[in-house]
Amino acid sequence: MSRPSGLGRGLGALIPTAEPGRSGLLSLPLTAIQPNPRQPRGVFDDAALEELAHSLREVGVLQPIVVRPVAGERFEIVAGERRFRAARLAGLAEIPAVVRHTEDADLLTEALVENVHRADLNPLEEAAAYQQLRDDFGITHEALASKLGKSRSAVSNTLRLLTLPPELQHHVATGALSAGHARALLALPDAGTQRRVAQRVVGEGLSVRAAEELVRRLTEPATDDGVMPDLAAAAKARAASPYGDLERRLSDALATRVRITGSPRRGRVVIDYAGAHDLERLLAVVARGAGTSLQDE
Predict the structure, then answer these.
(1) Domains in the chain and their CATH numbers?
(2) Are 44 and 3 in contact, with CB atoms under 8 Å apart?
(3) Average pLDDT over residues 123-148
(4) What distance in Å separates the CA atoms of residue 194 and residue 253, rounded to the nearest whole number?
(5) Considering 81, 204, 212, 213, which one is annotated as catalytic?
(6) Are 190 and 214 in contact (CB under 8 A)?
(7) Residue 229 pLDDT grade (very low, low, confident, very high; cuts 50, 70, 90)
(8) Catalytic site residue 81?
(9) pTM value?
(10) 6: CB partners within 8 A, 6+ apart
């Protein structure tokens, strides 16, 4: 069995290499791993598996599966069969695996928790480590927060990074997006809007504060005098507007706030921009859309 190297890290950065009779990390061929026959989950959603396989191709394997040695040089899955199936679907030959021996499993768990805050993990790797400690090792949010000296909300907010689309997780892993940028994107309503705003954040080098302001403009429509209402008032205003759906669709497409006023016969569309560079971006987007429409005709 090969030693782990160049793996997507997560817990892999924190676990010692497995030695005979001791728990630790190895990179195992998928052909040496067998499912647990007592696995209570018999059905795996094909679409969800394909989505996870795409994530593994895009970001790498951040969370090792957990296995135990059985007869011969084979291993049985203790936790992570869904990851194992997605790895096969992604065409991987090997997968990082925590080889777990019963006699020192508790010691391994404690060592992992002790080392999480010491390792040089990027935010996505840290989130993956938290999730695996929770899902595969049974550590609760409260216990993990207490052991790490962090608040429960800090742990929960870090875990939320794993809900971003895979390509945006990749941006976080490479440092193109910081954890602050990523948390701002999480306030957006859907993956498509998150992708478009992330492109703008990366392309224009926006600060976290600028990204937060952009997201705020997209999610809290302004009143006519430019004053930002609170969330409840914003939702009420959006629901009351006869153009609420059109405003939302245009805002998503342009990655900025759009307001529509007037009657069905006559009115105006107001598009917000943030500086000359952003105005050029919006003109390019509108021009491309107009060109597409003309070609379609």
Answers:
(1) 10-161 (3.90.1530.10), 163-296 (1.10.10)
(2) no
(3) 80
(4) 11
(5) 81
(6) no
(7) very low
(8) yes
(9) 0.52
(10) none
